[in-house]
Structures are given as structure tokens and as C-alpha cells.
Amino acid sequence: MSLYYQADDRVFQKLRAAGKTSWDEQADPQASFDNFVMRPFLEESLAEMAGPLDGLSALEIGCGSGPVSCFLAANGLAVRGIDVSPTALEMARQHAAERGMNVQFDSADICHMPEQQDRYDLIVDGHCLHCLVSDEHRRTALTAIHGLLKPGGRFLIETMISHPGLIVGANYHLDARGVLSIKVDDPAGRDGAFTSGSEWFAPYRRLLSADQVTTELRDAGFAMQSHRVAEQKDPRKPMLMQIRAGHRPT
Ligand SMILES: C[S@@+](CC[C@H](N)C(=O)[O-])C[C@H]1O[C@@H](n2cnc3c(N)ncnc32)[C@H](O)[C@@H]1O
Prior knowledge:
The structure is a single chain. By secondary structure, the protein is of the alpha/beta class. The chain has two domains: 3-164 and 207-247, Rossmann fold (3-Layer(aba) Sandwich); 167-206. Helices cover 28% and strands 29% of the residues. Strands 3-2-1-4-5-11-10 form a seven-stranded mixed beta sheet, with helices on both faces. Strands 6-7-9-8 form a four-stranded antiparallel beta sheet, with no helix packed on it. α3 links the parallel β1 and β2. α1 packs parallel to α4 (86-98). Bound molecules: S-adenosylmethionine. S-adenosylmethionine (SAM) binds next to α1, α3 and β2.
């Protein structure tokens, strides 16, 4: 596991040590394993899908400790969740077992997927895409997801985006390309680490505009079925974009 991903694994170690169950509980006091941030968008999107959900196959990229994957399984889908964080995957397997959910959780990097994978009726990105910083990683991941989606299948994305009113705190640095870097104590092994003033920063997230995200998706072969920017309580923070996409008709 590269240092780039180890930062997220450390977050899950801290969450587990604090008795918390999911990523969203870090910042949102209302959040819980069952009350995850993407839930309203997922509920609405599943309700709009034609036909029964039972037996449809779903892949969640960046499943973390499993709230989204378990929600999909509870709705009758056959779910596979993938993540690069070993701690998150351990937590996900435990949460699924405690809830009697049969979800397959695998260690896999969406930027380095083997060929000849199964294809899915539904692919869900619950806040993973903005974790992919470089243009190359994002392009590779979106191309892989396009190949993993069945013809007629649906790709649901909830992702952070930048906007003109965005202000990042002193622990972060945002450049003109939308690369959000985080302050680090030790730059050793951190790809792209740089100094600003007397502090070290390392690339951490990518915050593109809504237009840039839709362009990336179109370039990867997706057609946008709907997209919108969700209401944001704090207008200085990154906004959340909610997208439904599918294969572009040939
Ligand atoms: C913001 S967390 C969201 C976790 C989960 N979807 C949720 O809603 O609680 C993003 C997750 O993406 C995972 N991730 C980051 N880069 C990844 C990659 N290249 N392939 C697979 N998972 C990745 C992280 O380890 C982390 O678990």
C-alpha cells in the first residue's frame, strides 16, 4: 500500500479505536453507519430504477467500512465492495457479519484493476473519486469503471467538487488545478510533497469543478443521465455533486 493510501487507512484505525463505525462520523455528528451522507441520493436513485432490485449486481468503489455496500445488500442487490484500506475492509466485514449481510469485500485499487473482471448492473462511488488526485489515476479509474459496468447499467457518483466560494483551512493548500494538499509532518515517500512557508504539504484530494467532472466522465465514455449539486450547509466547504451516468449509446 502506497503512503498516499496509508493516510486513509490511519483514519480508519483512529475511527475504530474511538468506537466509530464509518468515515462520515468524523465530521458529521448526525452520521452513523446507517445514516451515511450518500443515503438520500441512493434511496432516491434506487427508487427510480425500473424493475426489481433483487439479484442485480452492484460494485462499490472505495467502500470504506461498508455502510453503502450494506445498504445496497439490504435492498436486495448482490454486492461487492472494494477498497485499498486493510483496516476499512476488516471493519466492513465485521459490520456486514453483525448485520447478517452477505457482502463480498475485496482489497483492490480501482486505478489498477485486473482485466477480465465481472460486470455489474450498478456501480456506486460513495466519495472515492475525489480521493484520486492525478489526471492519470482518475482517467484510469473511470475507464476501468466504464468497462466494469454492464451495457444498460448505471453508475451513481457522489463526489466533492470545488466552487468559487470554497475556502480551505490552514491545514490545507489548494492549487489552481484543484489538487488539495494536506499538511504533513514528514514528507518522506509522499509523492509530490512541497513546502509552503515553513510547512510541508502532500497531495491528498482532487477538487474539480462540476463542469470538469462531467467532462472527465464524458471523455471516459459515459453519458450523463442527471447531475446536480447538493445543498451545502457551509458555503465555504467543498460541495457535493450527485451524478447518474451510463454508457454513451454507440
Ligand atoms: C471518503 S472514504 C468513503 C468510504 C465509504 N464509501 C463511505 O461512504 O463511508 C473514501 C474511501 O475510498 C478508498 N479509496 C481511496 N482510493 C482508492 C482506490 N484507488 N481504490 C479503491 N479505494 C480507494 C479509501 O480507502 C476510503 O475508504
